[in-house]
Specification:
This protein has 447 residues and is mostly beta strands. The chain is built from 1 helix and 26 strands.
């Protein structure tokens, strides 16, 4: 018996005062007289810039940009960081008509998007920056319904059950630290919506969690029903824009969760639940404009139940955007904070049943990373850096469909001189496909 087992290892999921350094630390140059303006974007640490980006002029588009009518798909480097001299988004010029949309091609690790701008950012009316999660797949009589992909930095929704294909009636849990539970057939429960899990300062920056997949039904199903349920919606992505000048937002930024997919046999089989909203953090000298920012939740197909809102944070010396222009209401501060926290903990899953996990696991995209020869007791090795010895690391194993998550705890020990610690848990796995997640929660040590 062969058992494919993807190991997805979200490395940055602490909930307390924990963050991962993605870029640099905000610096406030100190001079006795005539100090220059603060380097809010931290661009001094990133001298390489892609130049002035203007959607009206395709000569300024980053290499590898893909155009589809009035939509641009920008490539994302492995660290998720893009540096520009300035940004101007408008539909005229190289874009044919009627609005302009910016999206981002997920990198291999599906990291959040960090955009550092040395000057101003202008998003004109009718333009959209979109990092929303995808809707869950609709069930059909030919294929099972896959969970929707998360936006950049967000997490995939759970798959829908399909009794006649995978012989189970319970949907899969959404991925991410707040992934919604899959719907169950006995007792009959609807899929759970994704929750947004992060600290209030959005350090670390993390997207929304996926919604659970629907159940395939058992009771009250007509004879011959196939039990094809809907998939869960993906979590909204995570975006940080830091500009040394002014961010003028007359368009919109969307980091919404995806909706749950439908079942063709409803109400026998059920639909998926929505992913949670994602995260948007803007830092600048001034934030202005008549546009909107949204990190709204996706909804469950069966009854329209909404999952969790994400989070929006505005940090600028001067903010003129109205409270009603953001959903949810944004947290605001007059002092732009650091781009990242200099405290840099990491949590990784290094091996499953003695088999090494790839450096960049692809389980978040539904790809199998590790294949085991047989089910049964399975060891899962975790490794950390910057995490105190004795911390309990939560390891969560989520079946693709058919079973609730298995939760185990690994207490860190065996730390070396560099502060690298390790731990192991053992879980009993039935035949099937699973996603493995790990995270550590602890108080940041005093500096």
């Amino acid at each position: 018996m062969r058992m494919p087992l993807p190991a997805s290892a979200p490395r940055r999921r602490p909930v307390s005062l924990v963050a991962v350094v993605l870029v640099c630390v905000l610096t406030w140059p100190a001079h006795a007289q005539s100090p220059p303006p603060p380097d809010i974007c931290g661009c001094a640490s990133h001298p390489a810039s892609l130049g002035a980006f203007d959607t009206r002029d395709n000569g300024t588009w980053p290499a590898g940009t893909v155009q589809n009518y009035n939509s641009l798909l920008l490539p994302v480097p492995p660290d998720g960081v893009l540096v520009f001299d300035s940004i101007h988004v408008e539909w005229r010029g190289a874009l044919p008509c009627c609005g302009a949309e910016l999206r981002f091609a997920a990198n291999a690790a599906n990291t959040p998007i960090t955009i550092l701008v040395k000057g101003d950012v202008e998003l004109r009316s009718g333009t959209t920056v979109r990092i929303s999660g995808a809707n869950g797949g609709n069930g059909s009589f030919n294929t099972f319904a896959a969970g929707g992909r998360g936006g950049p930095g967000g997490f995939r929704g759970g798959d829908g059950a399909y009794r006649t294909v995978n012989f189970v009636s319970d949907g899969g849990a959404g991925l991410g630290p707040g992934g919604g539970l899959g719907g169950t057939a006995s007792p009959g429960t609807l899929a759970g919506g994704g929750s947004f899990v992060s600290s209030s300062d959005l350090l670390p920056l993390v997207g929304g969690s996926g919604g659970g997949g629907g159940n395939g039904g058992v009771a009250a199903c007509p004879s011959g029903s196939m039990g094809s349920a809907g998939g869960g919606g993906g979590g909204g992505g995570a975006l940080l824009i830091a500009a040394n000048g002014t961010i003028t937002l007359d368009g919109q930024i969307e980091a919404n969760g995806g909706n749950g997919g439908a079942s063709p046999e409803w109400p026998c089989a059920k639909g998926g639940a929505g992913g949670s909203g994602g995260a948007v953090r803007l830092l600048a000298n001034t934030i202005a404009g008549a546009g909107t920012i949204s990190a709204r939740p996706g909804t469950r197909y069966d009854d329209g139940f909404a999952s969790d809102f994400g989070a929006i944070r505005l940090e600028a010396l001067n903010v003129t955007m109205g409270v009603s222009q953001t959903q949810p209401v944004a947290t605001r501060t007059a002092n732009p904070g650091p781009i990242v926290n200099p405290f840099n903990p990491k949590v990784s899953i290094t091996a499953v049943a003695g088999q090494a996990v790839p450096p960049t696991p692809q389980g978040v995209f539904g790809v199998v990373d590790v294949q085991l020869p047989a089910p049964g007791p399975t060891s899962i090795d975790v490794q950390t850096s910057g995490v105190p010895s004795g911390t309990a690391v939560e390891v969560k194993v989520k079946a693709r469909v058919g079973a609730p998550p298995i939760v185990a705890s690994a207490t860190l020990g065996g730390c070396d001189a560099n502060g690298t610690c390790s731990g192991t848990v053992t879980v009993n796995l039935a035949a099937g496909t699973y996603t493995v997640e790990a995270r550590a929660t602890f108080q940041q040590p005093a500096s």
